[in-house]
Structures are given as C-alpha cells and as structure tokens.
Amino acid sequence: MSEHVDSTKETEDASVADSGASEEASVADSGASEEASVADSGASEETPRQRFPNIFFKPKPVKLGDELDVTISEVSRRGDGLVRIDGYVVFVPNTKQDESVKIKVTQIRPNYAIAEVA
Predict the structure, then answer these.
(1) Cβ 90 vs Cβ 115: under 8 Å
(2) In whole numbers, what is the pLDDT of the chain averaged over residues?
(3) Angstrom distances, CA of residue 71 to CA of 12, 24, 90
(4) Are residues 41 and 64 in the same domain?
(5) For an engineered disulfide with 118, which of 73, 104, 110, 112 has Cβ 3.0 to 4.6 Å away?
(6) Across the beta sheet with 112-117, what order do the strands follow?
(7) Prediction pTM value
C-alpha cells in the first residue's frame, strides 16, 4: 500500500509541476500575444499621417511677384502695415496706416503673404 501512496504522490507532484508549467506557458503566450499586438500596431504607426487644414489648398488671391496698388488698412502688432485682399492678409513692412503704396509680393504662406514696397 505504501507503493500505491508513493505513486499517487508522484502523480500529484507531476500534475503540480505540469500546472506550473502550463501557467508559465500561458503567461509566456500572453506576453507573446502582447508583443505581437504591439508589433502589429507599430507597423501602422511607422508613418503617421499629418493632416493639413483646407486653407493650405485654397487658391490665394495674390501670386508671388504680383505688383499691386494698395492702401494700408491696419498696422500689425509688429508694426508692419497690413492690407487685406479678398480677406487674405498681406503684411507690408515699413509702411503706416492709410498710406497708399505699390507693393510686390515676395512670400506666400497658407494664412498670409509678405510684400515689399515696390
């Protein structure tokens, strides 16, 4: 009978060892699946898409090199003259409010342009 008890004890030890191994395997599997999900999500985030406002693509009322006769309507915070052409802001350095000048557009940006006195 002692042999039977010993064999039962060995089976219990083996099942405990197996359950420990299966717990380790399940932990390892969950770690592997986490790594796989991180790898999958990392592949889609390699090149993030940058969203541009629609104003970047709208046609501007002025073009680079345009020469226009304008009257400066405002002065910006920096002290540059400011004129609006169809709602589009054009900064003209070294001018004052209510001054009539001929300008030449030197830079175009999505929200504004910069011109110089021609």
Answers:
(1) yes
(2) 77
(3) 96, 79, 11
(4) no
(5) 104
(6) 67-71, 100-108, 112-117, 88-92, 81-85, 74-75
(7) 0.56
